[in-house]
C-alpha cells in the first residue's frame, strides 16, 4: 500500500479538539511537521482560510505545490512532504494568497542558559531575549516572541498579522522557566501585537500588552509594537569616554528637571506635544544656554494615563510613543551628549497601575504583584506593588534599568519613591501591613533588590548615576553596598528642601525664631552624598509656585526667590531645579499647560533667568563651589549665630582652589556696614550679588568688591566691611583667583 494514500495520515490526535477550540496548551504536538516514516505529516490551523497549499522545496528542482486536505471545517489542514524537506504554506484568504513559512516548523528558540538565568533573576540582556525580537532563523526573517506567564493554560500572539485571532498563533511553553515562545515568519518592525492568555482555570483574560515590549502604540491605544532593534549609529564617543570625569562626585552637577509635554507646546497648538526632533532643536539649546550640566526627564517610559505624569508606568522597556519612535529617543540622547549635556531619567520600580491590558493578574495569577493587598496594594497611588521577593521580578526590573543605560546611553536613573519600597508600613495604618520575617517594618526583599540593582549597574554601566528619591532617615542610602549601604550615587535631600522652604516662606520678621530651619541641613549635609531638589513636587497640589511661597509684596517675593536660589547654589550638595523656576513662574505647574514663557517679556522674569544662568556658570567654573560638595572640608561656618539680623556667612573651599565667601541677608533690611571675617588680606572681588540690577534687583552692593583689613573677625586674621543688600546673597573671592 502506498504510504501517501494511507488515511492514517489524516487522522487526528485527541488533543486536536483542544486546538480547534482554542484551548490547546501544546500546539507543537499537533501542528507543524510530524514524522511519519518516509514522509512528514504537516498540519496547519488556518481558521477562515478558503484553501491551504504546501510549497515543497526540492534540492535541484523548482518547488512544487500540493493542496492540503481540510480535515475539519473549523480550519485544520493536513498534508505531507518528503521526510526532512523544507516547505512553506500558501494560504488562500478571501482577499488573496499569503505565502509564509510555518511557525510550527521551527525548533526551540531560547537557549537553556537563557532560561536558567531568567529563572534565577540573573539574566542581564532581557531586552534582547524577551519580548518581540526581529531576527533571521534558518534563513527566514521574522519576529521571535517570548513572554513569561508560568501559570497560564495557553498563550497566543495576536496582532494585525492574524486579525487578532488567538487561535492562529498559540505559543510553546518552556516549562523550566515558565516562558512561552514562538517565531512568526515574515513580519517585522512596526507590527502591533498583544498576548491572548487563557488562565489556569481556562478563562480568557483581557488581551495583554507585552511587559518587555521595546515600543508601544501611542495612548490611548494600548498595543505593543515590534521595534526596530538594528543598532543606532551613535556619535557621542567623546561624551562617553569623558563621562567618568563629568559625573564624578567632585564634578559640578546642576540638573534641569523637565516634564516634556508641558515644557513648551507646539506653536499654535496648546494641547500638542513636541516630538523628540522638536525637543532636540529647542530644549537642548535652552539647557546649554542656561548652563545646566544635566537634564532630568520625568518618566518617558510608556504609561497609559497622562495625568500620572508618567509615574504609573506599564512599559518599562519602551520609550513613550507620545514623543516618537525609540530610535528618535536615542537620537535625542545622542544630541544631548554632543552638546555636553547628560541625561537622567525618572524610573519607577516601586509600583504599577492595574490597567486590564497591563501587568495586573498577568497570567490569571498575581504574577508581578503580591497577592495580599497588605503587601501588594499602594494606598497613596491606588497602584500595585512589585513582588521583589521573586527572582523573575528582580530580573525584570534590573533588565529595564540596564536597557535605558546601555541601549540608550542614558547617564543615570532617578529612582522614584524609594522610601515606599523600603518600609512595609509606608502610608499604612496599624493592621494594614505585614511584618517581615523578623517582625520588623523593613521590606527586606526590596532592600535586597535595590542593592542588587545598584551593584549590577555599577558593574555593567560604570560611571552612571543612580539617584534615590528617599525621604526618610534610612542610613547609608548613598554608601557602597560593601559597607552596608544601598549603593546609590546620590540621595535627594528632602529634609533640606522642606526645612529651607518653610524658612523662606515665613515673614522675615519671624525668621529669627526659626533660625534652625535654614541651618539644620548643615548638621547632616555630609552624612550622604546629596542632591538638593526643588522638584515638580514642590509646585503642585495647592503648594503654589516657588515665587508664590515667598512672603511679602511682589518685589519681596522676587528678591526672596533670588536669595533662595543663590543660597541653594552655594549650599553643599548637587543642584536640581524644576522647569519654570528659572522664570519665577507665578502660578503652580499644570501638566496640561506650559511653563510661563511670557515672563521673559517682564524684567523680573528675565532677571530670574539671568540669575540662574549665572549661578550655573559660577557653579561650573569655580572649584570651591562643587569639588568638595560631599565632604566636610568643603564648608566652613563664619557666622551662624546672628539670629536677630538673619545673616549667615560661610566659606566654600576646595583643595588647591581659592575660597568663596558667602554672605546671606535673609531680611528686607539693608546692612550698610557689616564686618565679615575672611581668611586672607587683599581685595575680595564680588562674583555675584543676587540683588544686582541685572537680575531686576535694587542694585545695592559693594561696587564690585571690598578690601580686607588686618582686623580679626570670626576666627579669621582679616575682615571686610560689606554692604548687605536686602534679601540678598553675595559671593566674593580673593582678587588673585579671578
Q: Rg, please? A: 32 Å
* Terminal residue distance: 102 Å
Contiguous low-pLDDT stretches (5 residues minimum) are none
Write down the overall geometry.
elongated
| Rounded mean pLDDT score | 95
Helix content: 10-25%
CATH class designation of the domain at 112-226: Mainly Beta
- Number of distinct beta strands: 35
Instruction: Please name the CATH topology of the domain at 112-226.
Output: Immunoglobulin-like
Provide the β-strand percentage band.
25-35%
**Level-2 CATH architecture of the domain at 112-226:** Sandwich
* Quaternary structure of the protein: single chain
The CATH superfamily of the domain at 112-226 turns out to be Immunoglobulins
Largest sheet: 8 strands, parallel, barrel
Q: Supply the helix-strand structural class.
A: alpha+beta
Work out the helix count: 14
Strand order of the largest sheet: 16-17-20-23-24-25-26-27
Description:
The structure is a single chain. Helices cover 20% and strands 26% of the residues. With 738 residues, the protein is of the alpha+beta class. Among the domains are: 94 residues, Immunoglobulins (Immunoglobulin-like), CATH 2.60.40.10; 115 residues, Sandwich (Immunoglobulin-like); 104 residues, Golgi alpha-mannosidase II (Immunoglobulin-like), CATH 2.60.40. The strands form 9 sheets. Strands 16-17-20-23-24-25-26-27 form an 8-stranded parallel barrel. A 6-stranded antiparallel sheet has the order 28-29-30-35-32-33. The longest helix has 19 residues.
